[in-house]
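Researcher: Quick sanity check before group meeting.
Model: Go ahead. Protein one:
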Amino acid sequence: MPQADPETVRLQKVLATAGVGSRRACEDLIFRRRVTVNGRIAQLGDKVNPGTDEIQVDGQRVVTDTKMVYLAMNKPRGVVSSMDDDKGRNELADFLGTFEQRIFHVGRLDADSEGLLLLTNDGALAHKLMHPSFGVAKTYLAEVAGPLPRNVGRQLLAGVELEDGFARVDTFRLVDTLGKTAQIEVTLHEGRKHIVRRMLDAVGHPVSRLIRTAVGPIRLGDMRPGGFRHLSNAEIGALFKAVGD
């Protein structure tokens, strides 16, 4: 008689532990054929390994491995994107406290910039989020010297030539004008160093403040500077979907 895998657990219990819903609600999801395990439609009574099996509900991946960590942080201005800065500057670890797992930041924000930074111990997802071939968009709110001529948006959408090559934004929106300062929102897939600052410099409107407000489907929201939160299952699933997983 084959030995039962000691690592397997009933599927509805794994889903409930992951926060999908109550155990009874998860049983209903399975009964309605809305749950798949490794691409196969699940059935009531199935057992899974939460550390290795890929489980999806309505086509969206559910992270069931309790060792995985996915965080969103509002990085304050003046803090370097490092968990262990060898120069003794203010760093991310100063705000995050202690985690059992070793977590790392997904990409960077320069010290003078602020806003949304994702952190995780999921190296495969982090790689895909950072790699330009997966095309995960990032949105920024920039304060620039005003007034802002109408052609600035057209220039950025058409693209500008920088010292390391051509760059353009995907979207441009004038948010507000405050005296000699204008607030604009840009979205782009570029990940080159200081790319937003360099593009706005190139069109004659240097940045005085830069805030990243979104990475793919994850938004900064009203998190206080220095604050962080765990991503919801829906947000984690949306990140996997954004990179094609």
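Researcher: Fine. The other one?
Model: Protein two, sequence then structure:
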Amino acid sequence: MVLLHPVGLDGTFWDGLIGPLSRRCQVLAVDTAGHGASADPTRPGRMAERVTDVIDLILQEKCGPAVLIGVSFGGMIAQNVALARPDLVSGLVLAGCPGRIPAEAREAILARGAEAERDGMPAVVEATLQRWFTPSFLSTEEVAGVRRRLLEDLPSNWAASWEAIAEHDALERLGSFAGKALVIAGEADAATPLPAKQALAAAIPGARLVVLRNAPHMMQIEQPEAFLGAVESFLDETTGTT
């Protein structure tokens, strides 16, 4: 399994998931370009570059075909990897992400990166956390760790990621994906509307949509047990393992 994190975070933000999943198979938690230990991306940021990086990693580690588990930006990358190299992807778990960024939303998406480059990461962090978590969870240590991670990000890398996100447009092509797919939606997700996730599930033949009650955009952090339960149920159904 290959785990693909959201924008601004890194492969260390999968607490509660890696251990249980590692008992099933090899698990790789990726640092995408400009995050964690990975090199900085080129500018402007390109989705194709992120896709190539994941494909190269799967080939290098000889771990394909793999189940890709992606949240938010990670889920967008996963969709594009599956379309580019379906032979390397046996299944998709897509959480908190749409199948495309509408043309009318791209300017606002790019503005998130431009604001950080202009005013620094502190200018964007609080609004980001409010989109990502429910109000009652904002005072927790988990969110404090996310805040620290975001404040350490380079504004240029943050902006490059939003440039790549603005290019995301997989929805109309996902009908060609023949693997198993699960779309996980947070009922309280303020960043990606439920209709976008419903459209994503409808675009993939045989995909199942699970809505986690009261879960926010960063559901894997705020509700890790519910998120893991959805993933493990999907794996049990599609692989027959327990």
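Researcher: One line on it for the slide.
Model: The chain has a mean pLDDT of 96.
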